[in-house]
Amino acid sequence: MRRCALLGLLLALLALPGAAVAAPGASVEVDGRQLELDARQMAADADVPPTTYLVDGAPRQLTGISVRRLVGLTGASADAVSAVTAEGADKALLQLTAPELVAGAFAEGEPLVWIDEQDRTSILRPRTDTAPATIVSSAPGSPLLMRLDGATLLEVRTPIVSTDSAQVGEKVSLRGSAVGGEGQLTYTWTFDDGTTAEGREVRHAFTRPGSYRVRVSVIDTAGGGGSSPAVTIRVGSAKKAPRGGTGSGQGGGGADATGGTGQAGTGADATGGTGQGGTGADPS
Questions:
Q1: Fewest C-beta in 10 Å: which of 55, 75, 248, 280?
Q2: pTM of the predicted model as reported, rounded to 2 decimal places
């Protein structure tokens, strides 16, 4: 009886608002703060399609969120971070340095984070010519502990867009803004379609229908940086121009306005039909 009462009390405490409950995802230390990224956020921003990596001498197909994009979810910029360090459940460490965080740094594919069937959150550093691939994982149902080194956060605001609903080929205007920073600020846009652009104000046209999560990252000359929240732009197929109809008909006629009558022509639409004038006797 007493054991049941204690169990009920424990469940009630876990249900209280603000109660900490372990869950898969990432717990990231950045600029003196601890930020929690859950499985839903990571899935919504997954940008690495199924890719084959060589792990422990065997091919393994993985998909998930790139480390670059995960860094952006914390509000930091991957271009302003000196290193990303992750700690597994067995205290094993994995580190990616600044050159390894550059897009395309690894031949096989991007370093990525994913959650497996056992609710373990893992991170992969792909193999190189001199080192094998490395993976560290959290305990099942727990977040992966990560740290961003050298990150000084800038506050980057949600981009202002001319429209959040466009057609294929239509140019969308976007403008970014940041608070703080030292010296010149560099704005880099990612459009979720494999393309990028630089500049505080840019214009972009999407070439395929879909839903795109657009972000802007900002770095300053002192090594600070940040990334904006994503803004979603939905792109539909370009509208096709209506096709005009054709038609023919025999028009009535007469020698003048008082002449005989004829049969009106018919057409598929308002542009259809031409009539052939008839003849008639002048009543005068």
A1: 248
A2: 0.68
